[in-house]
């Protein structure tokens, strides 16, 4: 048996290749498909099947391009008609042979109505379950994509899919999700490399309930949905432009960006951005790019990446992450020496003000405190007078609620999201002060005082 898991950095997405004899099946391929073709060549096998668990919302699928380049058939769910222009529709009455392996789809609705999981059998014994966005390591798929009116219905479907269908396969079955820790598709995915259905049944915090009613009550809630998801949904039924195999991004000059209306996205570290950055640039470091770019920058905007001081691998990760999310208008980069040149010219740069937790505790009564954490993260036991909670994901559309009459202290968990928030505020003409260390630093200070 051949098996390979392909990890997509930036998006924390997993796709899979399984095979036997001279054949390979690919499950949930990412947009840039060269890696699958290369791995199949190395294994001396032919890609013959492409299986999709569901229409993805957070990245563009590579199924159409991979099919065109390999001749493999694409298989999609027959349980929901989304208007796909590609794919043969399949369901639980179908099964597929890959050499001596048997792959059987099972209908696991909840995350979406048509969601399929794929069970890989070794002989007559279920060995692996490719569960898509139904279940994650330590978490489970969201159920709110059909709106609040159908939330309870979809969450009930998810319970049945997990407890009645997946768990009936046996505790020994290896569980292969479509995402790992850091993905926008889960709020609490654990940092692990493997799991079984039995382990998740016993240890997954989201599954520790006594009844279906308790599960539905616990998990029926609406979540924030990034604006770029709408483009992903469209691309993943109608198809998207194929990607080139190399990074295509011109090195631009300062004069270039001054002449054009580009959005400069600063992907350097938080410390580098805070020290000196191009005025009105958006900050989102490479490690949080996939989580927040889709909330701040429109997919059609012409983007310039500021990569001054970064390694080439960091640039590549950011570039491919953005392209996989549908950002196809990356017009260029600002490279080594950009910030230094602006320093010498003494023009076009700003710094982000920061204060430590100790200073914040001394000053917060005179400040407006902007807390950019999600509502479920916010606690009431810290001394936040004059606090306004606007989750970072919503700040761009709600920045008009801020007033510049008081100094604005911006807090999050550690300071990273607060810095992103200050870059959004700066574009709106509002200054913000980052509380370095965030609530973790504040908690430490309060503990020391006790």
Automatic annotation (TrEMBL):
<dbReference type="InterPro" id="IPR001279">
    <property type="entry name" value="Metallo-B-lactamas"/>
</dbReference>
<feature type="domain" description="Rhodanese">
    <location>
        <begin position="258"/>
        <end position="341"/>
    </location>
</feature>
<dbReference type="GO" id="GO:0016787">
    <property type="term" value="F:hydrolase activity"/>
</dbReference>
<dbReference type="InterPro" id="IPR044528">
    <property type="entry name" value="POD-like_MBL-fold"/>
</dbReference>
<dbReference type="GO" id="GO:0046872">
    <property type="term" value="F:metal ion binding"/>
</dbReference>
<feature type="domain" description="Rhodanese">
    <location>
        <begin position="363"/>
        <end position="447"/>
    </location>
</feature>
<dbReference type="GO" id="GO:0050313">
    <property type="term" value="F:sulfur dioxygenase activity"/>
</dbReference>
<dbReference type="GO" id="GO:0070813">
    <property type="term" value="P:hydrogen sulfide metabolic process"/>
</dbReference>
<dbReference type="Pfam" id="PF00581">
    <property type="entry name" value="Rhodanese"/>
</dbReference>
<dbReference type="InterPro" id="IPR051682">
    <property type="entry name" value="Mito_Persulfide_Diox"/>
</dbReference>
<dbReference type="GO" id="GO:0006749">
    <property type="term" value="P:glutathione metabolic process"/>
</dbReference>
<dbReference type="InterPro" id="IPR036866">
    <property type="entry name" value="RibonucZ/Hydroxyglut_hydro"/>
</dbReference>
<dbReference type="InterPro" id="IPR001763">
    <property type="entry name" value="Rhodanese-like_dom"/>
</dbReference>
<dbReference type="InterPro" id="IPR036873">
    <property type="entry name" value="Rhodanese-like_dom_sf"/>
</dbReference>
<keyword id="KW-0378">Hydrolase</keyword>
<dbReference type="Pfam" id="PF00753">
    <property type="entry name" value="Lactamase_B"/>
</dbReference>
<protein>
    <submittedName>
        <fullName>Beta-lactamase hydrolase-like protein</fullName>
        <ecNumber>3.-.-.-</ecNumber>
    </submittedName>
</protein>
<keyword id="KW-0479">Metal-binding</keyword>
């Amino acid at each position: 048996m051949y098996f390979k898991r392909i990890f997509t950095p930036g998006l924390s997405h997993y796709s899979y290749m399984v095979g036997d004899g001279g054949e390979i099946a690919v499950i949930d391929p990412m947009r840039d498909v060269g890696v699958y073709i290369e791995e199949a060549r190395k294994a001396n096998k032919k890609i013959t099947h492409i299986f999709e668990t569901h229409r993805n919302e957070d990245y563009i699928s590579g199924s159409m391009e991979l099919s065109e380049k390999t001749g493999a058939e694409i298989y999609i769910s027959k349980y929901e008609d989304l208007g796909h222009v590609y794919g043969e529709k399949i369901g639980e009455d179908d099964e597929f042979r890959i050499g001596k392996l048997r792959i059987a789809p099972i209908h696991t609705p909840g995350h979406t109505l048509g969601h399929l999981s794929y069970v890989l059998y070794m002989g007559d014994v279920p060995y692996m379950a490719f569960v898509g966005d139904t279940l994650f390591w330590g978490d489970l798929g969201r159920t709110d994509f059909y709106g609040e009116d159908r939330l309870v219905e979809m969450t009930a479907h998810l319970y049945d899919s997990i407890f009645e269908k997946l768990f009936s396969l046996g505790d020994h079955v290896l569980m292969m999700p479509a995402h790992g820790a850091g993905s926008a598709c889960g709020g609490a995915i654990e940092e692990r490399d493997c799991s079984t259905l039995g382990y998740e049944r016993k240890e997954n915090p989201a599954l520790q309930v006594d009844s279906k009613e308790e599960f539905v009550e616990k998990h029926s809630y609406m979540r924030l949905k990034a604006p770029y998801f709408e483009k992903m949904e469209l691309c993943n039924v109608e198809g998207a432009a194929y990607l080139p195999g190399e990074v295509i991004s011109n090195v631009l000059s300062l004069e270039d960006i001054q002449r054009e209306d580009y959005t400069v996205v600063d992907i350097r570290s938080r410390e580098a951005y805070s020290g000196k950055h191009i005025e009105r640039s958006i900050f989102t470091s490479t490690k949080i790019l996939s989580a927040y770019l889709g909330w701040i920058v429109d997919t059609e905007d012409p983007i310039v990446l500021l990569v001054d001081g970064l390694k080439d691998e960091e640039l590549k990760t950011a570039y491919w992450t953005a392209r996989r999310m549908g950002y196809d208008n990356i017009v260029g980069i600002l490279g080594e020496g950009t910030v230094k040149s602006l320093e010498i010219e003494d023009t076009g740069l700003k710094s982000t003000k920061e204060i430590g937790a100790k200073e914040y505790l001394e000053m917060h009564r005179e400040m407006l405190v902007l807390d950019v954490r999600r509502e479920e993260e916010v606690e009431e036991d810290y001394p936040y007078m004059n606090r306004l909670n606007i989750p970072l994901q919503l700040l761009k559309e709600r920045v008009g609620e801020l007033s510049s009459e008081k100094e604005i202290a911006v807090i999050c968990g550690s300071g990273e999201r607060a810095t992103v928030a200050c870059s959004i505020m700066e574009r709106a003409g509002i200054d913000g002060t980052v509380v370095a260390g965030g609530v973790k630093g504040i908690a430490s200070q309060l503990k020391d005082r006790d």
